Amino acid sequence: MSRILFVCLGNICRSPTLEAVARVEFARAGLDVEVDSAGTADYHVGEPPDRRSIAAGAMHGYDLSVLRARQIVSVDFTRFDRIFAADRANLRDLERLRPECGTRPALFLGDEEVPDPYYGRDADFERVIALARQGMAALISQMRSAGH
Ligand code: 4NP
After folding, report:
1. What is the pLDDT of residues 65-85, one digit of tens each?
2. Sheet holding 33-39, edge to edge
3. Which residue of 14, 51, 95, 123 sits 20 to 30 Å from the alpha carbon of 129, by its own alpha carbon?
4. Containing domain of residue 28, as a range?
């Protein structure tokens, strides 16, 4: 079984969306993957996801409402086999936090970012869902080719 962690800044918009989409899509694909999410910042620790993210997820069959924000901790870098950052700022923060020998973080979309929708409008939250679905499909086919 592999363990995958999704990371953004606040853990209330992008990474909980990635976590919820991953849970559904990996199960649909028959892949045994443990998923979780975290933020690099502690601003929203303990809070549910942003209501706009919950609403966008629900429209597509992804339940974010049970999730609660947490901040990444050092042990995450040994607990998870793969750590995916939503954007380049998240990736830089993760590289700074990574202990020696810890899992090396990567951008979820390879060389594209999942843009921060927090100060945006509804369409920006829709875009996060679309990118999450697109990236998860790519990750699933990559995992399948790797024999998972
Ligand atoms: P997230 O979005 O990193 O996708 O969860 C944000 C959430 C909160 C803030 C920024 C981005 N904030 O500045 O509080």
Report:
1. 999 999 999 999 999 999 999
2. 33-39, 2-8, 82-85, 106-107
3. 95
4. 2-145
